[in-house]
Design brief:
- The chain has helices spanning 6-12, 37-40, 60-68, 122-130, 146-151, 158-181, 214-235, 275-290, and strands at residues 30-35, 47-48, 55-56, 72-75, 90-92, 95-97, 108-114, 186-190, 238-240.
- By secondary structure, the protein is α/β, with parallel strands linked by helices.
- The protein has one domain (6-290): Rossmann fold (3-Layer(aba) Sandwich), CATH 3.40.50.1110.
- A hairpin with a 2-residue loop joins β5 and β6 (95-97).
- The radius of gyration is 18 Å and the shape is globular.
- It starts with 5 loop residues before the first helix and ends with a helix.
- 49% of the residues are buried.
- Mean pLDDT is 86; it is low at 2-25.
Amino acid sequence: MRTLPLLAAALLGVSLALTAPAQAAPSIGRYVALGDSFASVGDLTALNGPPGCFRAADNYPNQVAAALAPAEFVDNTCGGATTRDMTEAQSAFGDVNPPQFDGLTAETDLVTLTIGANNLDLLRTLVPCLIPSLAETSFTPRIGNPCEQRFTATGVDTFAQRIDDEVRPAVAAVLRGIRDRAPRATIVAVNYLALVPPTSDECGYWHGVAKGDIPYLFRALRRLSTMLMDEAAHAGDIGVDANVIAGHDMCQTHDKRWVESIYLPQPATPWHPNSLGMRAVGALVVAALRN
């Protein structure tokens, strides 16, 4: 597996330009983008495809396509997608996104994939323990770490356990399914931009996360992202570790963050990549392909 070196990734940043298609090598015939909201969203003022997928015209697949100029580009990404939606139609707020694997053919040259988070049903899983944090301010008593307490109450980290027991085999099956349908394709697995910093000292209040939970959520989401890289390595595919890049989480100022908080200076989705983030991830993918 070829993984973008961590040092190179850290140096890329948003300043890395997506260079002209003429510099792209090798040439790409058909490029198919698969994945969930971390692949599909971006600037919500310009959407394509089923509205319920929130598929932005500036998402990272579009950034990659603009840089590499494939002969064909198929963006099948959709917000809320799970591994099941690779082979089954997905209902998305009244819309229907066909099975994402429908875009794969034997002639496909490039596939990008971001998947796995929604297998954990993060909205239903995390919101109950995040709600108390909305009352936490610098003027109120600390809420503590309600999410960490919730998931480790039995002495076993059930969140981490589900990543290993449920999500890992499902992601491995998706990678095999892509290879079966697109045997000659270069497959690039892209993980999740960091939502929060490693320590609570780096984050203020009113981001939807109790300060005491920030280190736990950082570790949990890092585990999910590392799992995706591990499975890409096992399959012999390329892994792009976007999660490892620090200093652009939702706790940063609006000009630095690549993931939006519940404050929205940009037309983006809370807790998801904004336009800056999507440009950065697109640049990482292009650099990995050229490495």
